[in-house]
Amino acid sequence: MENFWLFLAYGLVMLAVPYFWSGARIPSANALPSLLSLGVIPSFCGFYCTILALQHIEAYKTQVIESSEPFFSALFAAMFFGEWLTDSGMCASLAIILGALITSMPDRRGVPIQVRPIGERE
């Protein structure tokens, strides 16, 4: 749990710099619970689900599937807010999904064939 708080603090510092640099206002106290839940719940749940996935599949497959997050973010933005991707964003989304599908397919290599010289008996 100590790492969780370190990650949270690091993220807060890294996001605070561009936030204040842009001249944005500090949110009201009424918005803070919502903002904190947006930061804590997805971060904690995503980290927890990644750890669970690592127990069941290989690390490279977990990472590729986890990298599909931008695709689903764009999909939900289109569905709920009417925000559509540009052509380059569509190409990138397609590459993400194809990569996730290819790496999550089961290995279909056959059993290796053992070749013996003609006339050799088993």
From TrEMBL:
Pfam family, any one: EamA
InterPro entries in alphabetical order: EamA_dom (IPR000620), EmrE-like (IPR037185)
Source domain of life: Bacteria
Keyword field: Membrane, Transmembrane, Transmembrane helix
SUPFAM superfamilies hit by this protein: Multidrug resistance efflux transporter EmrE (SSF103481)
Residues annotated as domain EamA: 3-104
GO annotations of cellular component type: membrane
Membrane-spanning intervals of the chain: 6-23, 35-54, 74-102
Name of this chain's protein: EamA domain-containing protein
Record organism: Rhizobium leguminosarum
Lineage, highest ranks first: Bacteria, Pseudomonadati, Pseudomonadota, Alphaproteobacteria, Hyphomicrobiales
